[in-house]
Recover the amino acids of this structure.
């Protein structure tokens, strides 16, 4: 077990290294010039060159990356070009909001997705099933900014039930979390349905029924734990999709998280912040996957972590 | 040893005029029609028949577990004591299921829930039907596990199904079914998926428990050997109807209907059988020579990306087959017989020498591999899963010819027609898809495909195991005819000793990746020398109720033994020395 964790953490470090190389290279190749953004339109050529030298952006790629990596290994994510503060501080300040949003979003998608999938599987082939699957399809295919704006318009503007943007109370959380969760809920509903239909055909379900167990016991104790296994593995992968959703949703609802930070940084080519947010997201994805793998043996005793 | 014949007592379970239909109310088609039988206390009634005879549907109808809405109980009554089951609402039926009628199923590997502990699954049943404390339920569960002779029952309660062998799982199923002392136990092919030696133990266990508890057993089986061994009475079914019913002994002495007669005649038996291979002598050249074959599968896990301990599946196997000869490789699951076959056809990496028609395949290059694939063909076990469902039968058989670029298009087409004729498939068959054929026809298709390249050797891995006996007999006949016609050598891999006894010239017995004994068919069956071989042959249920096994004392389980040299005990009869 300890060995397994060690191996996974070493793998995680290598993945982060890979992510840092690729992102850094992409930003280096970007035609947009960060120095222009810092200096402003009216700056002289001399000023621009000075700033470039100051930031070390005149150096070749390998030197720049090497320097960044050395700092990174010491826990230093660098300073923002424009905000005049440490990237780490900026991220730490905004991380709790994003984590809260993600947790709420995952909860939304799991509860809605599993409930819909379960219901559809049990009512398989009926109009209920078809209606659920059509709505899950809508959830999957509608872009998040559209879903977000729609929810915002209906519940925020027309009905006035929930605040349209901001951060602070539970009511503020509802719409962003729902927007984030609906996309995944559609996926999960479909996965749970097919996985559940498959499980309900298994011999051990017949055994459970032959024992004289109640329908609900058969469903929740014997079928669901088996059907949910592939879903658990999915959640780890899902965090990646979630991160991109977070950028959109935080912008739509004015949620002060790292998604918003990233969005602003990208617009202004603030490379240290983009790098920092990317690495933190990658870390979240890697840890999310690890967590999902660590949970799996508790659901299925056949899985051994090696 | 049959229990009380129960004459005069009222039946525990009485099925009368039962009809089950599929296809809804619009186009109903009966899968069970007008079936009636009685089951008395302490009695074992065997419901025998080939696949599609409606025997499993009958058991589900009794349990009230017919798959809905696909099947419907159209008419008839099912009485348990004084209770009419067909009239009961689901809620009341649930109280009876698992308590007064219990059931065990064919597949012990899949019939237990993989994510719940054995103890949990056992106590769950008890708590569901009895108003007892959790502790009392646990005590009852341990007692039930003890009764099915699971060693260290208390500890095993925490085990999960995947930590147990197939035989143990089936014992757990039996424990679960009998924990509440039901009036009726329905056993649907309870030993079909088990190895013969395990089957013998489980059948013994069932019989003992029945004697102790007085349970009435409805045993559903396709195996006439099991019927002879277990049944007091037998009901033979075909196409959903009862064909014949009678006392087991009388039934085996004289069948009243031609169908039952044919059914029994088709059962392969050790030491007889009309289709038995005559003794033949073979000269060289050898078609296939295998020397010191070893197969290791890489293990999983290890530090970082390293490999774990490899699995040593075949540990040095040597044999040879002459042209036109049949060598059978027998053994129980996990002995390495299928891995050997896979290695021969190039599906598993191996070390050692495989000499095919004088050419060593060990260091084969691309061209050599292709040639080897022409000379060595394989027919797999499952005729449903081993044919691509999206290709027509004609394409399937022609594909090897295409791959090897043999003949022109029209020549290939002619060859396909010829092959279909050879294996006894109708001329319109090439245009049809695999799902339009029956199991036996599909296996003929697989054989036609194997024959396409005129191979020197055909490896048949459990090729008739999934077939009904009557179909099995015809496919075996076909294999024999083709062999005498083309002089093909067969490597016949099977767990079924009776089939092996019928088709083989020589037999090799495998255990734990090694050959323990090899001899001519007659030597091996009349004079088995290795204790494991003796046990394997004795464990086979014999379709003759008068010939009860004297096998109460089975040789204790053979521990995996090391490499023991084979010693020739008589000409052509080699046995591993026993420690």
């Amino acid at each position: 077990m300890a060995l397994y964790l060690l191996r996974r953490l070493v793998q995680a470090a290598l993945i982060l290294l890979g992510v840092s190389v690729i992102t850094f290279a992409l930003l280096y190749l970007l035609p947009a010039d960060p120095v222009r953004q810092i200096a402003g339109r009216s700056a002289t050529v001399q000023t621009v060159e000075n700033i470039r030298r100051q930031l070390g952006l005149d150096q070749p790629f390998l030197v720049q990356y090497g320097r960044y990596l050395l700092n990174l290994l010491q826990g230093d994510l660098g300073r923002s070009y424009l905000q005049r503060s440490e990237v780490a501080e900026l991220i730490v300040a905004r991380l709790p909001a994003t984590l809260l949003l993600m947790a709420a979003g995952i909860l939304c998608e799991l509860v809605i997705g599993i409930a819909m999938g379960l219901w559809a599987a049990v009512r398989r082939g009926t109009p209920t099933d078809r209606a659920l699957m059509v709505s899950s399809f809508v959830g999957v295919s509608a872009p998040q900014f559209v879903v977000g704006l729609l929810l915002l318009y209906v519940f925020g503007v027309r009905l006035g039930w929930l605040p349209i943007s901001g951060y602070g109370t539970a009511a503020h959380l509802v719409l962003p979390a729902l927007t984030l969760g609906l996309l995944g809920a559609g996926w999960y509903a479909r996965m749970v349905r097919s996985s559940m239909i498959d499980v309900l055909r298994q011999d051990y379900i017949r055994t459970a029924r032959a024992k004289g167990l109640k329908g609900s016991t058969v469903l929740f104790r014997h079928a669901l734990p088996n059907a949910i296994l592939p879903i658990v593995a999915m959640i780890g992968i899902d965090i990646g999709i979630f991160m991109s959703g977070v950028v959109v949703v935080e912008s739509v609802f004015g949620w002060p998280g790292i998604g918003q930070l990233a969005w602003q940084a990208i617009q202004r080519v603030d490379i240290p912040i983009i790098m920092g947010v990317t690495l933190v997201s990658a870390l979240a994805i890697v840890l999310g996957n690890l967590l999902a793998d660590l949970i799996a043996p508790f659901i299925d005793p056949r899985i051994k972590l090696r | 040893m049959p229990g009380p014949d129960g004459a005069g007592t009222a039946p525990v379970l009485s099925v009368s005029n039962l009809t089950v239909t599929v296809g809804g109310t619009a186009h109903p088609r009966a899968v069970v029609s007008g079936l009636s039988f009685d089951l008395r206390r302490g009695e074992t009634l065997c419901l025998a028949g080939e696949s599609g005879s409606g025997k499993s549907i009958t058991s589900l109808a009794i349990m009230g577990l017919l798959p809905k809405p696909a099947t419907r109980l159209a008419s008839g009554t099912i009485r348990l004591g004084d209770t009419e089951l067909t009239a009961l609402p689901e809620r009341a039926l649930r109280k009876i299921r698992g308590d007064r009628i219990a059931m065990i199923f064919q597949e012990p590997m899949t019939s237990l829930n993989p994510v719940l502990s054995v103890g949990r699954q056992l106590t769950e049943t008890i708590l569901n039907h009895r108003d007892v404390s959790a502790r009392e339920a646990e005590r009852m569960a341990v007692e039930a596990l003890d009764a099915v002779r699971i060693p260290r029952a208390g500890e095993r309660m925490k085990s999960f199904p995947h930590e147990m062998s197939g035989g143990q799982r089936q014992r757990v199923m039996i424990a679960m079914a009998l924990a509440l002392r039901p009036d009726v136990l329905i056993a649907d092919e309870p030993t079909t998926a088990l190895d013969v030696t395990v089957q013998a133990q489980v059948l013994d266990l069932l019989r003992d428990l029945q004697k102790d508890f007085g349970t009435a057993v409805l045993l559903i089986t396709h195996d006439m050997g099991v019927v002879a061994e277990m049944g007091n009475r037998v009901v033979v079914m075909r196409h959903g109807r009862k064909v014949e019913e009678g006392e087991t002994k009388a039934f085996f002495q004289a069948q009243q209907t031609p169908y039952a007669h044919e059914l029994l005649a088709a059962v392969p038996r050790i030491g007889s059988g009309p289709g038995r291979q005559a003794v033949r002598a073979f000269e060289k050249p050898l078609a296939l020579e295998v020397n010191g074959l070893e197969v290791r599968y890489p293990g999983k896990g290890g530090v970082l990306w390293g490999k774990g301990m490899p699995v040593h599946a075949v540990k040095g196997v040597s044999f040879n087959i002459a042209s036109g000869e049949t060598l059978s490789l027998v053994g129980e699951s996990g002995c390495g017989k299928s891995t050997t076959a896979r290695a021969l056809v190039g599906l598993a990496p191996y070390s050692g020498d495989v000499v095919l028609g004088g050419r060593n395949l060990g260091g084969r290059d691309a061209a050599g591999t292709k040639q080897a694939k022409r000379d060595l063909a394989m027919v797999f076990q499952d005729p449903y899963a081993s044919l691509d469902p999206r290709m027509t039968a004609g394409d399937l058989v022609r594909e090897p010819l295409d791959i090897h670029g043999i003949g022109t298009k029209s020549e290939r087409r002619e060859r396909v027609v010829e092959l279909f004729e050879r294996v006894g498939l109708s001329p319109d068959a090439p245009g049809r898809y695999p799902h339009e054929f029956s199991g036996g026809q599909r296996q003929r298709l697989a054989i036609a495909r194997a024959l396409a390249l005129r191979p020197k050797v055909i490896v048949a891995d459990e090729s008739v195991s999934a077939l009904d006996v009557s179909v099995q007999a015809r496919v075996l006949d076909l294999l024999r005819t083709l062999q005498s016609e083309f002089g093909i050598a067969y490597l016949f891999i099977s767990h079924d000793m009776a089939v092996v006894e019928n088709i083989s010239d020589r037999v090799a017995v495998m255990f734990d990746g090694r050959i323990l004994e090899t001899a001519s068919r007659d030597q091996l069956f009349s004079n088995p020398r290795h204790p494991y071989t003796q046990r394997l042959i004795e464990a086979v249920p014999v379709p003759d109720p008068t010939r009860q096994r004297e096998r109460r004392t089975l040789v204790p389980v053979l521990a995996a033994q090391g490499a023991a040299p084979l010693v020739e005990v008589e000409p052509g009869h080699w046995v591993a020395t026993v420690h």
